[in-house]
Design brief:
The complex is a heterodimer of chains A (935) and B (234).
Chain A lengths: L2 H7 L1 H35 L6 E4 L10 E2 L12 H9 L3 E17 L3 E7 L4 H9 L15 E2 L6 E12 L4 E13 L3 E7 L2 E7 L16 E3 L3 E5 L6 E8 L1 H8 L7 H4 L9 H10 L14 E2 L2 E2 L3 H14 L8 E7 L5 E11 L5 E11 L4 E2 L2 E2 L4 E3 L21 E8 L1 E3 L4 E6 L5 E5 L3 E5 L21 E5 L3 E3 L8 E8 L1 H7 L16 E6 L4 E6 L16 E3 L1 H8 L10 E6 L5 H16 L4 E4 L4 E9 L3 E2 L5 E2 L2 E9 L2 H37 L2 H9 L4 H30 L2 H24 L22 H11 L1 H32 L3 H33 L3 H13 L4 H34 L4 H20 L4
Helix pairs in contact in A: 1-14, 2-12, 2-14, 2-18, 7-8, 12-15, 12-17, 12-18, 14-15, 16-20, 17-18, 17-20, 17-21, 18-21, 20-21
Chain B lengths: L4 H8 L9 E10 L7 E11 L4 E5 L6 H8 L7 E6 L2 E2 L5 H11 E4 L11 H6 L8 H14 L15 H13 L5 E5 L7 H16 L3 E6 L2 H6 L2 E4 L2
Parallel strand pairs in B: 3-8, 3-9, 6-7, 7-8
Antiparallel strand pairs in B: 1-2, 1-4, 4-5
Classes of the chains: A alpha+beta (935), B alpha/beta (234).
Protein name (chain A): Permease
Keywords (chain A): Membrane, Transmembrane, Transmembrane helix
Pfam families (chain B): ABC_tran
Chain lengths: 935, 234
């Protein structure tokens, strides 16, 4: 019988080696898959829109790898010449500059309350439709009868206007103002004019109208409604950023198509505000703008939003602010606003004494989606409850022209700095909590300095000022050119821009992509349902919204009066011309960064970065009516973690490798213990061979050759898995497995003494207690078969230690993955595979331990038969098996606990306790399975 | 070698109290032939074993002697038929009840003695007393029994240190420790020389004088001769 036949005959040896072989194949395959998934996840998600962020000298903080999203503040520092030098480098794909141009404080036009008071079709309407050449109006025969929400006789009303803003958590009432007066149905009145008569719509006799305090106007009747001017909304701060539209489009790809109108805007020479204003105004002949305004243009200036432009031009001309040097500022403006501002109107019918007679109702409107900075597509109107808007009868002639803003908007270079934070202690996963630094209170909720129509100073005392905490200091820059005249070229969706900035590989675009903050804990540290914080009115709070408008660098020069030599560029985002993942492009990116640094600029390599949600504590956030100041709590905001890709790949690869090492190392150790125990059990065979005249070396080589068949099988599998995996980890693990198994083979043959067991003489008459219970019986048997007992106990200990360590590694995965979005994504990709690998390790260890435990089963079964014949019942035999397994478990437990503690201290100190629990549970599981063994 | 009856009665701690402690009725033992013909070990086998008698199941190896013994000792179930201990059918007992009754009634001596390794002769003899926690109470009796089978000076020795005959005698002593009424013995002399075989035969014969019924399986002609009755197994 050759060695291979003898090896195959030894079923237990074959099974243990087969289990080890299966474990090697499965675990290497699994680990390889985990590595592959990890590499793919990291490579796909770690190169954002740009690779290098270039900042002015001294702006790029060295040594900090966690970057807040705000990095432009209007202070500039990079010249156009430096930008061109960057662009001239060979490896530059895109170099996109960005700057903060201005802060604009603006007022929305007066809100209006429209009360339906339709006087019916009349000659004035017919004349209007004819003069304006409006062809899509409802035919005269189909116009309805007059309709009104008002009574023929004027009634007294009290109208209360209220504006409330919310930061997402707290509401602040900005003002609540009431006005009283009487309103009634308008009448058509014919009056004489030279050459005939004319119709006019007049208020009913006795009507006082309703007038809110200045600067709000009063009420006026028209053919369709009574319009009541409401108190103004508070001033709103917006920012304008400048980009190079072509470069920005190249950076954003398809997402940058909104910049196309800006890219096609005329150069500085074609932007004279006076000429353009005059030309547009002269084009306002009847019917010109009744249709097709979306596509038409004048000398490259689109007609979209022509109305606010012309009206602002006319207002500026009246104010005398425009000069020959004034230029239009082409802008793409943000759609909507993140500002949570609700305007409501409560209407009551009252008697002469002011007592409420009837509650007419409340209507409200949020600033919301219809709002456009620097323009308005629709007037900010609320409609009296129950009324219908009959303006629609006019067709396109019913579209109301709006000025957009109350004039003049205040353009300033009163910029604010980026917030300052104080970093806390680093958490185990590398995340660092921050604390925002309050910079002082700023007052908001003011009225404009001048009224629109009379140029009078409004009574500011009609509104209580509201204090908002500022987390950004003032960075006022000197300068300023001739008054700019904004010209809206198009709109952009802030959320779409944010999406374009990336998710996992998020890189802030710089001022026009929103960087929301979300409240996660209150000031007491209690978790709250996440609430996205809304920006305040000052624009200097922690939460700010996307810039209100984007212009180009000609626009910046026009607003700020700068020359081409001025260092007005805040930052340059550079995309290196290198294909592939961050790792593929790393060399070229590093070289490019070094070359840019040589130009005297600071560079931050952001290829391989990832988004990280940072917890920020916000102190001294709110001031109540009594002046008491309270903290906000903890908010979360997406920042950028540099080097995340490398860190995630390294740490998760290490975790995966450790799992492989543990799985196969543990399996190899158990197989080795099994081999030694099994070979020892064949001592009788060795004795027989010795009796047949075999020499001791011959007997050893006889057994060793048998074991080397197992080693050969393992070697073959090692070759296969290394050919498949081709990693240093697999090679190392394979070598460790081979070394352990070969060591076990040599040790077991060395321990195989071909002599009968020595007769140790009779038991002492004293000192050895009689066996009088299953426990003592089990203890005696285990002490009698010390070698086997030791092998099983070590096996149980290794099982517990392996289970504990594997659990520790699994628990440590989130820490190893880090706190970045890339880490979370990578973990979601490989976490399951790693858990499968850990489970495979535990199951392999359990199977091998059970196999080792069963080597002595035949002898035990004989004993159980003997005991049964002596009248030991099933219960007692079960107690015996439990005692035996229990003693073995107790013997293995210290090794399990110590092993779990030692290994988890090395790989995951924070998981020691849970590792120990897992180790103990594994031992308990082994105990349960052992005592379930059928007799 | 064996002490006088007065001492013996005290040593084995019992007296005969049932006329027919073991009865086998219509026992058939049949094993599935694995696809071929079923193997019939015994068919419609009857046996009534009276107290104080020795019955020998004789026959060549493989004739089914051991199978009958294990059925008689309640260790295996017959294919059909009934086993009665002191008139009570095992069919009506649970496994635990059978174990309890066996302990009180049957002393089983396996072929070769079947001692537990690692435990001294004395401890082996006392093993049946473990379930009732009577080890301490029975220790002196165990020593007496070992004296009785001639091993009083080997009681601290373990099985590996005993000869085949000695192990067989320890097993008999163990079977008697709880005042057994039926001794079921499988091939007690099979691997012994004549001298040691005769010692065992003497011990077994002596136990019958104490009212113990002995059911023994053997192909030893000396043992077959001394039995009060015998059945030839084919």
């Amino acid at each position: 019988m050759n060695a291979a036949s003898r090896f195959l005959r030894s079923r237990s040896l074959v099974i243990t080696v087969a289990v080890l072989v299966a474990a090697m194949l499965l675990s290497v395959f699994t680990q390889d898959r985990a590595q592959s998934a990890l590499g793919q996840a990291v490579d796909t998600n770690s190169r954002g829109l740009y690779d290098i962020l270039v900042l002015p000298k001294g702006e790029g903080t060295e040594g900090q790898t966690l970057k807040q999203p705000d990095y432009i503040s209007g202070t500039g520092g990079i010249t156009q010449d430096q930008l061109e030098q960057i662009r001239s480098l060979d490896s530059i794909g895109v170099a996109a500059p960005i700057s903060l141009v201005s802060k604009v404080v603006q007022d929305i036009e007066f809100p209006q309350l429209k009360a339906t008071d339709y006087v019916g079709y009349n000659e004035n309407i017919a004349t209007y439709l004819e003069q304006q050449n409006i062809t899509d109006a409802v035919p005269a025969s189909e116009w309805p009868e007059p309709d009104s929400v008002l009574s023929e006789e004027p009634k007294n009303y009290r109208i209360t206007a209220k504006a409330v803003t919310s930061d997402g958590v707290n509401e602040t009432v900005l003002f609540e103002t009431a006005a009283e007066g009487s309103l009634g149905q308008a009448k058509l009145e014919e009056f004489d004019v030279p050459g005939g008569t004319s119709l006019r719509t007049v208020a009913p006799e006795g009507e006082t109208g309703i007038k809110f305090p200045d600067p709000a106007g009063g009420s006026a009747h028209g053919d369709f409604d009574v319009t009541i001017a409401l108190p103004m909304l508070p001033q709103i701060s917006e920012t304008v950023v400048a980009v190079d539209p072509a470069a920005e489009q190249a950076l954003l790809g398809e997402a940058g198509s909104f910049l196309e109108p800006l890219a096609e805007a005329p150069g500085a020479a074609g932007r004279g505000a006076m000429e353009l204003g005059e030309e547009f105004s002269s084009q306002m002949t009847p019917g010109l703008f009744s249709g097709g305004t979306e596509s038409a243009d004048i000398d490259g200036h689109p007609f979209a939003f022509w109305s606010p432009f012309v009206m602002q031009y006319q207002a500026a001309m009246e104010a005398g602010t425009l000069t020959d040097e004034s230029q239009v500022i082409p802008m793409v403006v943000r759609s909507g606003t993140a500002l949570d501002l609700t305007y409501s109107v409560h209407i009551e019918e009252i008697d002469d004494a002011g007592n409420t007679v009837a509650d007419v109702g409340t209507v409200s409107k949020a600033l919301g989606e219809e709002y456009l900075p620097f323009a308005s597509t629709k007037p900010f109107q609320l409609r009296w409850p129950g009324g219908e808007d009959y303006n629609k009868l006019l067709g396109s002639g019913g579209v109301q022209v709006v000025a957009g803003l109350h004039q003049p908007a205040q353009w300033s270079t009163d910029f604010v700095s980026t917030p300052e934070y104080v970093a806390g202690e680093a958490n185990p996963d590398g995340s660092v909590g921050q604390t925002a630094t309050p910079q002082g209170w700023v007052q908001v909720n003011k009225l404009p300095e001048k009224t629109q129509q009379w140029q009078l100073e409004p009574d500011q005392s009609q509104r209580a000022p509201v204090n908002e905490q500022s987390y950004r200091t003032s960075l006022e820059e000197s300068g300023g050119a001739a008054a700019p005249l904004p010209f809206v070229y198009g709109t952009f969706d802030a959320n779409a821009v944010r999406d374009a900035a990336g998710d996992v590989n998020y890189l802030p675009l710089g001022g026009y992509d929103p960087t929301p903050v979300t409240l996660t804990e209150d000031a007491e540290g209690n978790a709250v349902d996440p609430v996205e914080m809304k920006p305040g009115l000052s624009g200097a709070g922690l939460s700010v919204q996307s810039a209100g408008a984007i212009t180009d660098y000609n626009g910046l020069a026009a607003v700020r009066g700068t020359s081409p030599d001025d260092a007005v560029i805040d930052a340059v985002r550079v995309k290196v011309d290198a294909a592939g993942s961050w790792a593929d492009a790393a060399g070229r990116i590093d070289a490019t960064a070094a070359a840019i640094k040589d130009l005297g600029l600071d560079v931050q390599i952001v290829a391989g970065s990832a988004r990280e949600d940072v917890s920020i504590y916000v102190p001294e956030y709110r001031q109540d009516a009594s002046g008491a100041v309270s903290d906000l709590g903890t908010v979360s905001q997406s920042w950028v973690r540099q080097g995340a890709a490398s860190a995630v790949q390294t740490s998760l690869s290490q975790a995966s490798s450790v799992l492989l090492m543990l799985t196969l190392g543990g399996a190899a150790l158990l197989t080795a213990a099994s081999t030694v125990a099994f070979t020892r059990a064949r001592r009788a065979e060795a004795v027989t061979l010795r009796a047949m005249g075999w020499t001791r070396p011959k007997i050893r080589s006889w057994f060793l050759s048998e074991l080397l068949i197992g080693a050969a099988a393992l070697l073959a599998v090692a070759v296969i898995v290394n050919a498949f995996s081709r990693t240093m980890t697999t090679l190392l693990v394979s070598a460790v497995v081979m070394v352990i198994y070969l060591a076990a083979a040599f040790i077991s043959t060395a321990l195989l003494k071909p002599h009968p067991p020595a007769d140790t003489g009779p038991q002492g008459a004293t000192g050895v207690p009689l066996v009088d219970s299953p426990v003592k019986f089990a203890a005696r048997q285990l002490s009698t078969n010390r070698f086997n007992t030791g092998a099983v106990a070590v096996g149980v200990g290794v099982l517990g230690a392996a289970a504990g360590t594997l659990v520790a590694v699994i628990l440590d995965l989130p820490r190893a993955a880090g706190s970045t979005a890339l880490g979370s994504l990578a973990l979601s990709e490989v976490g399951g595979v790693n858990i499968a690998l850990a489970l495979l390790g535990v199951v392999t260890a359990l199977v091998l331990t059970l196999i080792t435990s069963r080597f002595d089963l035949a002898r035990k079964r004989e004993q159980w038969d003997i005991l049964e014949a002596m009248g030991w019942g099933p219960g007692l035999l079960l107690a015996l098996r439990r005692s035996e397994a229990g003693i073995l478990a107790l013997m293995g437990l210290p090794l399990a606990i110590l092993g779990a503690v030692a290994a988890s201290l090395a790989v995951a100190p924070h998981a020691v306790f849970r590792a120990v629990v897992a180790g103990v549970l594994a031992v308990i599981l082994w105990f349960i399975l052992m005592t379930r063994t059928r007799k | 070698m064996i002490e006088e009856p007065q001492t013996r009665a005290e040593k084995i701690g019992r007296t005969a109290d049932h006329a027919m402690p073991l009865e086998l009725r219509g026992i058939t033992i049949r094993y599935d032939g694995g696809g071929g013909e079923p193997l019939v070990i015994a068919e419609d086998f009857d046996l009534g074993l009276e107290a104080g008698t020795m019955h020998c199941l004789a026959g060549r190896s493989g004739s089914g002697k051991t199978s009958i013994l294990t059925v008689a000792a309640g260790l295996t179930l017959p294919t059909s038929g009934e086993v009665l201990w002191q008139g009570d059918s095992l069919d009506e007992m649970t496994d635990d009840e059978i174990a309890d009754r066996r302990r009180a009634l049957i002393g089983y001596v396996d072929q070769g003695g079947a001692l537990i390794d690692g435990m001294s002769a004395l401890e082996n003899v006392l093993l049946p007393a473990v379930p009732d926690q009577q080890v301490e109470a029975k220790t002196e009796m165990a020593k007496d029994l070992l004296d009785l089978v001639g091993l009083g000076r080997r009681m601290r020795h373990r099985p590996a240190q005993l000869s085949g005959g000695e192990r067989q005698r320890v097993a008999i002593a163990r079977a008697l420790i709880l005042g057994t009424k039926v001794l079921v013995v499988d091939e007690p002399t099979a691997s012994l020389d004549r001298e040691h075989a005769n010692q065992i035969i003497g011990i077994l014969k002596d136990t019958t004088t104490d009212g113990i019924a002995v059911l023994v399986a053997s192909h030893d002609q000396e043992l077959i001769k001394v039995a009060d009755s015998r059945t030839m197994m084919n």
